[in-house]
Fold:
Amino acid sequence: MRLFRTRQGYRWRCLRSIEAASRNHGERDAFGQQQTALNREISRRAAEHNWRLRQIAET
Structure:
């Protein structure tokens, strides 16, 4: 992560994301799809973990 200046002020941005923004259209799309799939998997695992914790708490 890196502090990156935008028109709205400074924002934290992932270096991979900044680098991908400077690539051609196809590479940017591929990066976005890969990142979306990664985020979905992280979200799915977090939901599963939370479900398991609730199951333990209920017993």
